[in-house]
Write a structure and sequence with these properties.
This protein is of the alpha/beta class. About 45% of the residues lie in helices and about 15% in strands. The protein has a seven-stranded parallel sheet with strand order 3-2-1-4-5-6-7, sandwiched between helices. The radius of gyration is 18 Å and the shape is globular. The protein has a single domain, classed as NAD(P)-binding Rossmann-like Domain (Rossmann fold). GO terms for molecular function: oxidoreductase activity. InterPro entries: NAD(P)-bd_dom_sf, Sc_DH/Rdtase_CS, SDR_fam. Keywords: Oxidoreductase.
């Protein structure tokens, strides 16, 4: 097998992507599908799933709130019915959470951020691991963390806390599952272009009392490359981590952020 062949995920790989109907999740799902994988996604947004079905009709889907255990069971019933097993779990689902000082933060907003960003990763990993252990196709978990999972992030405490926890969970799973041949890695995107990032920028600008334009530049200039990354940049790393070339890469938290120096 050539080095170039090693960089391609195995054709027919069975992949589940959470929150896969838009943004980074959709970019990852489509990238795997284009590489010859069989892909199933779940998302809470039915209209986004309908759009994805039009753009990528080969990708199957489930409507689900990833923080609700019974919805997670439905997703895995659908996965078994459509894919017959699982080789890759991409734990991508996440919300931005509230922006504001800790003393004024609503406890319900904190709890929802933890439920979607962290608890969902547990719920999906718990269901996926028996299927991954049965796989013979370089099985792995890709967990979506954030640059906020390696740096402190003022006024975004719930988000940063969950993203640090995801890195700890990933490293622990790598140790736990390694003897069974299952790998686990985390991706830490930086400032990703798109509507969600624009909402984050606007919320932070409002909290700090500055213009949206000034806040956008604050985000860009924190990167050594002075630019945002794209969802496709993140998808490319996910493909690599699930390829034969990465068969000995596990327990890693890998940034795709242009080297963000601080938040």
């Amino acid at each position: 097998m050539s080095t170039l062949d090693l960089l391609r995920p195995q054709p027919g790989l069975r992949v589940l992507v959470t929150a896969g109907a838009a943004g980074i999740g959709a970019a990852i799902a489509c990238a795997f599908a284009e590489a010859g994988a069989r892909v199933h996604v779940c998302d809470v947004d039915r209209s986004a799933l309908d759009r994805l079905a039009t753009e990528a009709p080969g990708i199957s889907s489930s409507v689900a709130d990833v923080a609700i255990e019974k919805d997670v069971h439905v997703v895995f019933d659908d996965v078994l019915n459509t894919l017959g097993g699982l080789d890759v779990l991409v734990n991508n689902a996440g919300v931005a959470g509230p922006t504001g000082a800790i003393e004024g933060m609503d406890a319900g907003h904190w709890e929802r951020t933890v439920a979607v960003n962290l608890n969902s990763q547990f719920l999906f990993a718990r269901q996926a691991v028996p299927l991954l252990k049965a796989s013979r196709s370089n099985p792995c978990i890709v967990a979506m963390s954030s640059v906020a999972g390696r740096l402190g992030y003022a006024y975004r405490t719930p988000y940063a806390s969950t993203k640090w926890a995801i890195v700890g969970m990933t490293k622990s799973l790598a140790i736990e599952l390694g003897p069974q041949g299952v790998r686990a890695n985390a991706i830490l995107p930086g400032t990703v272009e798109g509507a969600r990032m624009e909402d984050v920028i606007a919320a932070r600008a409002s909290t700090l009392g500055v213009s949206v334009e000034a806040m956008r530049w604050e985000y860009v200039r924190k990167s050594s490359l002075r630019r945002m990354v794209t969802a496709e940049d993140v998808a490319a790393l996910a493909l690599y981590l699930c390829s034969p070339a990465a068969r000995n890469v596990t327990g890693q938290a890998i940034s795709v952020d242009g080297n963000i120096e601080y938040l």
